[in-house]
Specification:
The chain has about 70 residues and is α+β, with helices and mostly antiparallel strands. It is built from one helix and three strands. The relative contact order is 0.15.
């Protein structure tokens, strides 16, 4: 019975540790996409609208690096 409690506590601690690590490792959380497109990016036909803020964003693509950039449009 005591091993079952240790196992459950270990699983909960592991889950919390993975959540914390993913917050720091996920680069999407730290991307600041604004209104100035960096050099080397080409516009695409892809446009998204944020359902919460109603911001319209156009997608730009860099063919050399494969990165995407989201420009806020008005």
């Amino acid at each position: 019975m005591i091993y079952l409690i240790y196992y459950i506590v270990f699983q909960i601690l592991l889950f919390i540790a993975l959540l914390i690590i993913s917050k720091f490792k996920d680069k999407r959380l730290h991307q600041d996409h604004g209104e100035v497109v960096p050099p080397g990016f080409e516009p695409t036909n892809e446009v998204t609208i944020d359902p919460v803020s109603q911001e319209k964003r156009r997608v730009y693509f860099n063919p050399k690096t494969g990165d995407r950039y989201y420009k806020v449009e008005k």
